[in-house]
Each structure stands twice: as C-alpha cells, then as structure tokens.
From TrEMBL, chain A:
Record's keyword terms, sorted: Chromosome partition
Family annotation (Pfam families): FeS_assembly_P (PF01883)
Classification via PANTHER family: CYTOSOLIC IRON-SULFUR ASSEMBLY COMPONENT 2B, CYTOSOLIC IRON-SULFUR ASSEMBLY COMPONENT 2B-RELATED
Subunit structure: Component of the CIA complex. Component of the MMXD complex, which includes CIAO1, ERCC2, CIAO2B, MMS19 and SLC25A5. Interacts with CIAO1, ERCC2 and MMS19; the interactions are direct. Interacts with KIF4A; the interaction facilitates the transfer of Fe-S clusters to KIF4A to ensure proper localization of KIF4A to the mitotic machinery. Interacts with CCDC117; the interaction is direct.
Alphabetical GO biological process terms: chromosome segregation; protein maturation
Organism: Lipotes vexillifer
The protein's name in its UniProt record: Cytosolic iron-sulfur assembly component 2B
Entry GO terms, CC: cytosolic [4Fe-4S] assembly targeting complex
Location of the MIP18 family-like domain: 45-115
Automatic annotation (TrEMBL), chain B:
Protein localization: Cytoplasm, Cytoskeleton, Spindle; Nucleus
Pfam families attached to this UniProt entry: MMS19_C, MMS19_N
UniProt xrefs under Gene3D superfamilies: Leucine-rich Repeat Variant (1.25.10.10)
Record keywords: Cytoplasm, Cytoskeleton, DNA damage, DNA repair, Nucleus, Repeat
Annotated gene: MMS19
Function as written in the Swiss-Prot or TrEMBL entry: Key component of the cytosolic iron-sulfur protein assembly (CIA) complex, a multiprotein complex that mediates the incorporation of iron-sulfur cluster into apoproteins specifically involved in DNA metabolism and genomic integrity. In the CIA complex, MMS19 acts as an adapter between early-acting CIA components and a subset of cellular target iron-sulfur proteins.
Domain MMS19 N-terminal: 50-162, 165-268
Gene Ontology CC: cytosolic [4Fe-4S] assembly targeting complex; MMXD complex; nucleus
InterPro entries, sorted: ARM-like, ARM-type_fold, MMS19, MMS19_C, MMS19_N
GO biological process: DNA repair; iron-sulfur cluster assembly; protein maturation
Keyword Heme belongs to the record: no
Protein name: MMS19 nucleotide excision repair protein
Ranges where the MMS19 C-terminal domain occurs: 512-938
Length: 163, 987
C-alpha cells in the first residue's frame, strides 16, 4: 500500500486516482443452486470476470479505478456476443492498450469459444481511442502481442490473483 | 588505597594465595568459583581476597591487572549479598578509580560495578557517583556489545530502587540511539529474539519516565515525519505509550507539532495501520490532557488542543465534495472518545454542523455519509455516563436528531434507512433521552419497516433487530403501541386467509409472527406475545381456517425463537415452559384422538415436519430449566405418556384415552417424538419417574409394527436417555435389553429395518460417551455393510454417527458428548473399514467406500491430513465409484491433500487429471464443482509435473466454461485461468 513505486519503478502517470468501492461477491440465489435451472451468462457474470483484473501500474483492480463498470458490459448469451467498454483513468493513459489487452485475454480464457468478443474504449474517454480499438479488434495483432514474452508477462501479472 | 590499608591486619592464608596465583598468572578459570565458594562458606572474607590479590592489582602489565580485577569482580558477583556497607564504600571507590585504567581492564571493572550495583547495602549517593564516573570516564556508546549490556544492567539495577536523578539526558542518549529499532533476526538465531521483542523492550525504557519527555517527543515527531513506515508506526505507538505516564507539563510545548504530524498522517497516508496508530495516539494524547490535575491558575490545555483540532477539521465536514470528511470525522471521533469532557466539547461543536449539512445535501448517499458520522459521535456518548440529566450533551439536540432520523427512515434508499435504524437504536440506548412521544413514533416506524417487501430484506432484518434491542429498554412502549397492532394483524389475516387471498397476505402473516418473536426480549413482553402465539395456534385448530403445514411451522418457529430469548432469564424460562408445553401437548393429544371428522389442522399437527418444529420448541424450552422446575414438569409429562394421565393439560376433555405405548392409534404413537424432545433435553441430574418402564416401552415401540416416524422417535428417545444414564448395573441391563432386541430383530422377519435403526442410535449414544460397548456395536454395524438388504442404509448410518444431531444427543441438551469422539472413531474404525473394503465382494464395495467417505467428511481437515497419504490408494480407487456421495467426499479429501502434500500427489498426476476431468462433466452439480476445484488445486503441484498436461487440460476445461450452471462456470474459469498461467512468464 505504501510508497507504491508502480510496476516499472518510474513515475506514475496518475499518482492519485480516485478509488471506488469494490462490489461484493455476487449473492448465490436459490435458482443457481437448483441443478435443473440453467443460468444464462449475464452482464454481472462478465463483469465479475474482469472486475478483479489488476491495473498495470496501481496496486488496485480495474473495478476500484472505475475502468470497468457493469453498465458498460453488453452480453447476449443466445447470440453469443459480448461487448465490454472500458474507461481509462486519464485521456492520455499510455496503458490503455495494455488494459484492453488484459480484458480481452481474460475473456478469451474464461468464456466459451462460441462467444464473439468486442473490447473497446468508452467513446470519448481517450485521445487515441480509434487506434487502440483497432489494435484490440485485430485478432492477428492480439495473437502477435501474446507471443511477446514481455507483454505476456505484464498481462499475466494483471490476471494473477492478488495475494 | 584505603581498602588495602584496612586489609593489612589480616594475614592471607596460603591456600587462598595459591588459588589467586593460579587464576591471575596461571590463566586457569576454575579457582574463581573456588574462591567465591570459600568466601560464601566463610573460609575467607572479601577483604582477605583483596589482600591476596594485592600486587596483581598494581601490576604494570594491564593484562595482569585486568585478570586480578576480573577475579575480584567474579567473586563479588557471587557474594555481593555478604558485603557490609563499609566494604561497599571502599570497593566502589576502588572501582571508580579503576575506570580510568587501560581499556583492557574496563570490562572487568564494569563487571565489578555491576556486582556492587546489586548490593542491598549501597549507601545513598553512591549510585549517582558510580554513574557519574561511568559517563565521565567511558564512552558507553562505543563499547563492545557485552560491555554496553553490563552498563545497562548497572543502570537498571540502580533504577529499581533509585531515581535516575541528574543523568536523564545521558540515560536518554544511551538508550534512544537504538530508536527506532531496525533489526532482523539472523537465521538460526539461538536466542530467538524477534524484532518485536526489542521494539517493546526499548519502548518500555523510553516511555518509563516523564523526565525523558523533552528529549523524546522531538525525536518521535521527527520519526513520524520520516518516510519509513515502520518508523512511523513505532513512533506513534511509543507516543501512545508515553501518554500513560505523561501529563500536561510534558506535552505542553509539543502539542502543535504532534497534532500537525498526526493530522498529516491520517489525512494523507495510504496505510491503514498508520492511520489506526495515528488515531490511537491522538486518543491517548487527549486522554492524557483530560486526566491531568491542574493548578488553579494554570491554563487548561485540553480546551485549546480540542479547539485546534476542531478548527482544522470542521471545514472539511462542510465541503461540498466531501473529500476529506472521513479522515476528519475519524480524527474528531478519536479525540472525542478520550474523555467525557472531550466528547462533550467536540460533540457540542460538531453535531449542529452535521445536522445542518444533512439538510443541505439532498442526495441519499451524501445524507447517508453524514448520518453515519453523526452515528459515530452518538455512539461515543455511550462510553460516558452522566449523573445529571441536564448535563447530558445530547439533550439539546434531541428533537433535531429525532426528526432527522424519522425523516431518514422513510427515505427510499435502503442504505440510508439502514444507517437510520442503527442511529435510532443508539439514540434509544441513551438513558432518558427519548420522550414517550418519540418512542411511539419510533415504534410506528419499526412496525412499518417490519412489513417491508422481499427486496428490502436487509432493512426488515435490521428493523426487527432494533425492535428487539429497544424492547428490552422500553417494554411499555412496545407493549402498548406494537403488540396490539400485531395482534390485530394476526386476526385480520385469518379472515383474509379464509377468503383465500393471495400470497402477500400470507407473507404479511409470517412477518407479523417474526415481529412478535423479535420483540420478546423482555419478560413483560413475553407475557403478552406468548399467549398471542398460542392463541393463534389454537385458533387454527378450531377448524375454520385452511392452515397449511408451513403456516403452523411458522408459528412454531416463532415460539422457538421466543423460547430461545427466554433461556437466559430463569423466570421467563419457567413461564414459557409451563405455559407453552402443556398447550402444545394438549393440541397434539387432541389431534391424535380417534375421531370421525378430522379437522384439516388436526391432520396437519401430526405431520412429520410439524412435529419436528414442535420438538424444537419443546427442546429449547427445556434445556435451560433448573433441575427443581424440570423435576416438577417431568412428574407430569412422563405419566401423561405412560399412564394417559391428562389432568395437567388445559382443555383436557378428550373423546378417548391417550395411550401411545399401549394400543393407541398410530397418531398417538407419533407423539412419542414430543416426549423425546422433553426427556432428552433435561439436565442430567433430573430423575425420571418410572424410568425402567419407560425404557422398556420405548424399546417395544422402536421395533414394532408402526410407522417409521414413531419407531425412530422411540429409538432416538431410548438412545438419548441411555447416553445420559450413569454407568452401573441399570445401564448394563438397559444395554442388554437393547442388544437382545436388536439381534432378535436383525435375525429375520419384518422388523429388520427398525432393529437396524435402533442399533444405529444406540451405537451413536455410546460412541459419544466412549462407552466400552460402542466398539462391539460399531463392528456389528460394519458387518451390515455387506448385507444385501441393509448395506446401503448401514453405509449412510456412518454419516449419522459422525454428525451432530439437532434434537437428541446434543451438548445443549446435556448429553454426554466427548469432544474428540470423531477422531477416536476414525482411529478405531478406519483400518477395519479399509480391510473390509479390500475383502468385500465387488457388489458391496461401494458401501464400504461410502461409509468411509462419511467418516472422512466429518473429520476436521487438520486431523485428517496426516492420515490421508495412507488412504490415498483407496481414495484414488473411490474416484471411479459411481456413487455421487462417494465422489464428492473423495474430491473434498483430495483437494486439501493437493495443497498440503504436492510431492506425494505428483506421483499420481495422470490418474488425478483424468479422473477430475471426467468428473467435471458429472450429472451432479456439486461433483462438477468439486472436481473443478480439484483441477484448480492441482496447479499447486510442481510446474514441471504439470506442463505435459497443460494443453490437454486447457482444451478440456473449455467445456465446463459453457456449463449450464453459473457456479460451475465460476470454478471452471478460475481453474482454467490458473492452468494458463502455469509456466508462463509473469506468473
């Protein structure tokens, strides 16, 4: 908590971000405990997948930084589509691509293959919105990024459970 | 030297001289102890030793001088108690003089002074003289560690009895140079000293005396202001410790700086620990200022200190963005929590401000924050009791607070409602604050909140809890304003229910019952609510309503909660018992009478679930009875069941006789469950009349042609009584009867299943109390595992043996339950179960596995872990067992084993991965979840073992990601996520 030097040890771009409360665990309903009733994949379930992703430079989660919010998750289980919009903490955040990549990788690893994923920046919240969105939508570039050991290392750190 | 001169009269003995020579010149260590022993035994005096040392003490070679002084010092260390005052004076003069000597000599000189510092006969003034000499002649801080320790010992010895006097600064210098402690114990440190030990010891020294204050406080401020977290924490904690001995005088000059540092830490820190320590230090500082006794003309620093705090914090409470409100409120509350005066000062300044802010803000979440702060200040008031009503600082704000809380109670925001319910409870806890008008309003709000809809569950629960708390304080308000409303509600409900109104009526009804039990926290209220509940039950029995099973059970649950609330008060407990139990028994007996036209409720009252609910009421109302009163009750209830003596029941004109044990109807036999609830909850020393007959009747009923409910109740009742019966001839007779009954029943015929149930319950009763016969009965039970008919039931029986019952054989019901019975059962029986498994024919093997699973499941995991490796091959085999109980239990055994014993488990990686993946598509959701949790736990095995499986597992785990159940998907996600990270950079 104290004297956080950031991941790279350099200066933080946004040293004093506003911190938001974490939502609690999703309460388990009687329906969820019933063997027979199918539970469809909904926005909260997608949000639960991504809310605990660690920010690359703060010891905080994307939820605590309000980078991801449940209202910005669109999902249709029958049509197998998921769209997630994320909001960088500042408009010039150089970590935006990395954050988007982490969200994308987390969803690729956690959702059934039938789903078509769309991860993009909340419109109007980042200076290079289009460039970042284009990179995130390009399957080959995402695959190439994950071949890069350094990038994969940072993404994995974002996806590791916080001890 | 004066000492040497005084010694000349005495002639040294030859032996002593020889020993001294051996030590000093011969460099032998032994003679020192010899000399000391001789001095102790009186062979020589200390003076003779000095005499014998003579020339070596004046030898030009410093090593020889050091050796001579060392001998003297060692002797003194052992013999200091023998010294006379005059000798001490001489020796101290000698040693002080030697401090000027060569540095090689110093360690021995310090040892000698240490010996002398232990002398009881130390004349006044000499301690000061010794310390002066040490500080003047020796630079303590640069001595080797051993010698510094000696100096500190000397200081400590003097401090025990004497003042540190003129050496405050020197003492502070030589101790404070260690602050803050920065020490990491070396590996394999034989002393086992931890950093924390040193911190606490040094803190004890630094905070020992107020005289250090002028030196210590600047040091602490400096360290709080440093960048190092541990230094901040240590300084704040030390400041906290100092406040216990300091007064206004010591703190006066440093208050502004101390406050500035603490404020900065609380406002800016990212560490919760620093914040907590800062607040604790502020609390202690304020307490210290509040405590100090002042001279008449002195300024009271508390007022100015608190005014400073208020000045720096209050404007944050009013800032519209509310950014620093919480740190400010915490600081103010830390100070206010220190004393009644501080609390008064701060509350009277802050409350008007917060009340105003509440009305300025219109958003619910801002109002909630403000109300939470108000609540914090109100709670602090509870720490202080005010004798005089007019002095209570809250009196002036009472009306404003009440109207604010009542307004918040009607806010649409659940969060704000919750805080206002808590605030109402705290206001109510202030003695004499609320007027009867306020209470009436409060009760009205609580009534409304108790009937909130399903989506405001948390508010409703909080309102019920608040009602319970406030009802203990204001029973009259609740009796007069709430009980009549609830009573009315119950009546209205019935007519509505009769018209068959929708489920909302039904749920209102249930809420009413919950409210009635929630407020039964005061004896006088119970006297109103209990008759209402019982009347309601009787009313249902009149047959003019269609009461469902769940309706009756709801009433019983309320009764049970009331009984629970009565347990701690003997008078209420007895009131409940003698009011409720005859009534319940009368209703049940009435229902069990053979009659042509059964009212619907009568049938309802005899249902398994309803009887179970009544059992729990009777048990709860009985366990806390005093033995005297319990004996009164047992004298009525046992004859009711054995002889049909119904005289003590209210409304006891029944159309037939009550003979549950003779040829009564099957309905009557079912009521043995109620007898069980009563007799099995009695304290152990209550004598049960006609016990012999009762036990025989119970045995008969347990194995006769009857419904399983009655025979099981009889078996449980028999077992419950058996468990509490003192060892001796009568117990042996009962046991013999039971064994005969079991064997006769098991051999053949229609009662095998009943006999098995009896065996099971008797075994449980004996296992719990470690009775020697229990092993015999357990073996019998184990034998039944291969019985084609009873095998599966026997396997499930192990679950019953290992679990806690709720109605009989409970600790609360005074049963004899040894705490380690599960461990003992495990040790005694698992080897036999394993042997039985290997010897059993294929078709009954699952029974053994299931029995074993139940035993393993109930055992605390820490106990189980060391045993599991020996069972591993069996567990791996059990993974292939088709029974989902066995699968589940096996998975839950393997999961911790994967975490705790990765090396052993690595050997079976292939089996584990294959089986877990298979089970992750089991039809049972619980098994799928457990299998995926195991797949997650597998990732704790060494990575090289896992890597060959990585791709296969990741592919296989894609399937459960699309499981139809969310709980399964969740486990699949976390397991698959971990497998992705294996051997990947950054993990």
């Amino acid at each position: 908590m104290v004297g956080s030097g950031g991941m790279g040890g350099g200066l933080l771009e946004n040293a004093n971000p506003l911190i938001y409360e974490r939502s609690g665990e999703r309460p388990v309903t009687a329906g969820e405990e019933d063997e027979q009733i199918p539970d469809s994949i909904d926005a909260r379930e997608i949000f639960d997948l991504i809310r605990s992703i660690n920010d690359p430079e703060h010891p905080l989660t994307l939820e605590e930084l309000n980078v991801v919010e449940q209202v910005r998750v669109q999902v249709s289980d029958p049509e197998s589509t998921v769209a997630v919009a994320f909001t960088p903490t500042i408009p010039h955040c150089s970590m935006a691509t990395l954050i988007g990549l982490s969200i994308k990788v987390k969803l690729l690893r956690s959702l059934p293959q039938r789903f078509k994923l769309d991860v993009h920046i909340t419109p109007g919240t980042h200076a290079s919105e289009h460039a970042v969105n284009k990179q995130l939508a390009d399957k080959e570039r995402v695959a190439a990024a994950l071949e890069n050991t350094h990038l994969l290392e940072v993404v994995n750190q974002c996806l590791s459970a916080r001890s | 030297m004066a000492a040497a001169a005084a010694l000349e009269a005495v002639a040294p003995t030859g032996a002593l001289w020889g020993l001294v020579q051996d030590f000093v010149m011969g460099q032998q260590e032994g003679p020192a102890d010899q000399v000391a022993a001789d001095v102790k035994s009186g062979s020589y005096t200390v003076l003779q030793v000095v005499e014998a040392l003579g020339s070596s003490l004046e030898n030009p070679e410093p090593r020889t001088r050091a050796r001579g002084i060392q001998l003297l010092s060692q002797v003194l260390l052992q013999c200091h108690s023998l010294l006379l005052e005059k000798e001490v004076v001489h020796l101290i003069l000698f040693y002080e003089n030697r401090l000027k000597d060569h540095h090689l000599v110093i360690p021995s000189v310090l040892q000698g002074l240490r010996a002398l510092s232990l002398c009881v006969a130390l004349p006044p003034g000499l301690a000061v003289s010794v310390l002066k000499a040490i500080f003047q002649e020796v630079h303590v801080q640069s001595l080797p560690q051993v010698d510094r320790h000696t100096v500190y010992s000397i200081i400590t010895n003097f401090m025990r009895t004497r003042e540190e006097g003129p050496f405050v600064e020197e003492l502070f210098e030589v101790t404070s140079c260690y602050f803050p402690i920065d020490f990491t114990p070396p590996p394999n440190d034989p002393h086992g000293i931890q950093r924390e030990d040193l911190i606490l010891s040094l803190r004890a020294v630094l905070a020992y005396t107020p005289r250090f204050a002028e030196f210590l406080l600047p040091l602490l401020i400096e360290k709080v202001d440093s960048e190092i977290l541990s230094a901040k924490l240590d300084s704040l904690q030390t400041l906290n410790a100092c406040c216990a001995v300091y007064g206004q005088k010591e703190l006066k000059d440093f208050l502004p700086s101390l406050w500035a540092s603490i404020r900065r830490e609380v406002f800016q820190t990212a560490s919760e620990r620093v914040e907590a320590e800062g607040l604790a230090a502020l609390n202690s500082l304020t307490a210290c200022l509040s405590r100090s006794v002042l001279r008449a003309d002195a300024e009271d620093l508390l007022d100015s200190f608190l005014s400073n705090i208020l000045q720096d914090c209050r404007h944050h409470l009013c800032e519209p963005d509310m950014k620093l409100v919480w740190p400010s409120a915490k600081l103010l509350q830390a100070a206010a929590g220190a004393s009644a005066r501080a609390c008064d000062h701060i509350t009277s300044n802050v409350l008007p401000l917060l009340l105003e802010q509440f009305h300025k803000h219109s958003q619910s979440n801002q109002r909630r924050t403000i109300l939470e702060m108000i609540l914090g200040f109100l709670k602090l008031q509870q720490k202080w009791s005010y004798e005089d009503k007019d002095e209570r600082p809250l009196s002036g704000f009472k009306d404003q607070l009440c109207s604010l809380v009542f307004m918040a109670l009607t806010d649409p925001s659940t969060q704000l409602q919750l805080v206002s319910i808590r605030t109402l409870t705290v206001l109510g806890a202030q003695p004499d604050l609320l007027s009867s008008g306020d209470l009436e309003l409060a009760v009205g709000h609580l009534y409304r909140l108790s009937f909130l809809e399903e989506d405001s569950q948390s508010c409703r629960v909080a309102a019920l809890e608040a009602s319970g708390t406030l009802a203990t304080l204001y029973p009259v308000a609740f009796s007069s304003h709430l009980v009549p409303k609830l009573a009315g509600e119950l009546c209205i409900e019935e007519s509505d229910l009769a018209r068959g109104d929708g489920p909302t009526k039904c749920s209102r009804h249930r809420r009413c019952l919950q409210a009635l039990s929630a407020i039964s926290t005061h004896a006088s209220i119970v006297k109103e609510t209990l008759p209402l509940l019982l009347q309601h039950l009787r009313q249902m029995n009149k047959g003019n309503t269609v009461a469902g099973i769940s309706e009756v059970i709801a009433v019983c649950q309320s009764l049970q909660q009331v009984a629970e609330k009565c347990q701690q008060d003997p008078e209420s407990c007895w009131y409940f018992h003698q009011t409720a139990i005859p009534c319940l028994l009368a209703l049940a007996v009435q229902a069990s009478m053979p009659e042509k036209e059964h009212s619907v409720l009568k049938k309802v009252l005899l249902q398994d679930e309803v009887l179970a609910a009544m059992v729990s009421v009777i048990g709860t109302a009985t366990t806390h009875l005093s033995p005297d009163l319990a004996a009164q009750s047992v004298a009525h209830i046992v004859p009711l069941f054995l002889d049909g003596n119904i005289t003590f029941l209210p409304e006891n004109s029944f159309p037939g006789r009550f003979q549950p044990f003779q040829d009564g109807s099957s309905g009557q036999r079912r009521l043995v469950a109620l007898l069980m609830a009563f007799v099995c909850s009695l304290p152990r020393n209550v004598e049960i009349p006609q016990l012999n007959q009762l036990m025989r009747e119970l045995l008969e009923l347990s194995c006769c042609h009857s419904c399983p409910f009655s025979s099981t109740a009889a078996a449980k009742c028999f077992a419950g009584l058996l468990n509490k019966h003192p060892a001796g001839q009568q117990l042996d007779e009962f046991l013999q009867l039971a064994v005969d009954k079991v064997e006769a029943g098991l051999s053949s015929g229609p009662y095998r299943s009943q006999a098995f149930t009896l065996l099971l319950w008797v075994t449980k009763a004996l296992v719990l109390r470690y009775h020697p016969l229990s092993s015999c009965l357990t073996d019998r039970l184990m034998g039944l595992l291969s019985d084609p008919e009873l095998g599966p039931a026997a396997a499930d029986g192990f679950s019953l043996l290992m679990s806690d019952c709720t109605d009989v054989l409970t600790r609360a019901g005074h049963a004899e339950v040894r705490i380690m019975f599960r461990q003992r059962f495990f040790t005694d029986n698992v080897p036999a179960l394993v042997r039985g498994f290997h010897a059993a024919p294929q078709d009954v093997k699952p029974n053994y596995l299931k029995g074993l699973s139940h035993v393993l499941n109930r055992l605390p995991k820490p106990v189980l872990l060391p045993e599991l490796p020996t069972l591993l091959s069996l567990l791996l085999e059990a993974l292939s067992c088709p029974d989902s109980v066995v699968q589940l239990s096996t998975l839950s055994c393997l999961q911790p084993l994967l975490l705790e014993a990765p090396q052993v488990m690595s050997l079976h990686i292939d089996t584990l991965v294959t089986k877990f993946l298979n089970l992750s598509s089991s039809p049972s959701m619980a098994v799928r979840i457990a299998a995926l949790q195991c797949m997650h736990a597998v990732t704790h095995l060494p990575t090289p073992v896992l890597l060959p499986y990585k791709l296969q597992v990741i592919r296989a785990l894609a399937k459960p990601l699309d499981d139809k159940k969310r709980l399964v998907r969740k486990e699949a996600v976390s397991a698959r996520g971990e497998w992705f990270l294996l051997g990947s950079p950054g993990s």
